[in-house]
Amino acid sequence: xxxxxxxxxxxxxxxxxxxxxxxxxxxxxxxxxxxxxxxxxxxxxxxxxxxxxxxxxxxxxxxxxxxxxxxxxxxxxxxxxxxxxxxxxxxxxxxxxxxxxxxxxxxxxxxxxxxxxxxxxxxxxxxxxxxxxxxxxxxxxxxxxxxxxxxxxxxxxxxxxxxxxxxxxxxxxxxxxxxxxxxxxxxxxxxxxxxxxxxxxxxxxxxxxxxxxxxxxxxxxxxxxxxxxxxxxxxxxxxxxxxxxxxxxxxxxxxxxxxxxxxxxx
Length: 266
Ligand SMILES: C[S@@+](CC[C@H](N)C(=O)[O-])C[C@H]1O[C@@H](n2cnc3c(N)ncnc32)[C@H](O)[C@@H]1O
Fold this sequence. Notes:
Structural class: alpha/beta
Strand content: 15-25%
Helix content: 25-40%
Bound molecules: S-adenosylmethionine
Strand order of the largest sheet: 3-2-1-4-5-9-8
CATH superfamily of the largest domain: Vaccinia Virus protein VP39
């Protein structure tokens, strides 16, 4: 490894530490105004960029963490929630006799890796080409494969379980509607999203521009049984609800996983 390659990741990490110390010293009201201004600027820029370009930049600029030439899907993809989530999904795979799972927005495969089950095919889908190449090279085998696709526009592979973990929170309402329409062919759909803390006065399904941020800064999140998604309540079961390890705005934010069944009927 050349000296320059060694130094760069360290510099990025140091810059991140300095930034978080500076943030702690700034009054919270000022910080909030700064975040609002920064988000609206990012939204304006991302609106003009295709989804592929936006998320490729997110990974290449390490907006969700990582350093050097690593591609990192963020802190929501590791730790206790990931292992608790994997336990819930693995139980479901066993109970429902799943043969093929399709992971839409598989990211860096940190979570997907924990879902691997003997004899069950795993197909990871993501829009970022280099991420898919890296995953294929490192983890591809007889039952584990990856495809570079846009879940909003492209045809999805067949399977019996579709997993969408912490992806809708980064997409617009229109894009989510399009994906939900296409997932109707799956017998089981698992959707995991980040939700505001229980004391927050919620604004349901506030729209956003596709990008690395989430609706949580608008006191909002994705509510599948509400407009414009309208998934029938009786088709949705909450199967996991735990406190997010890393909160984005307030302590006490939740990570919830919903199982959708009978999607072909609505
Ligand atoms: C926050 S990451 C979640 C990764 C993984 N599901 C997890 O829980 O660790 C969201 C992922 O969705 C991918 N993504 C966003 N829009 C997409 C689209 N239209 N088609 C395919 N992947 C998309 C992003 O590139 C990113 O890897």
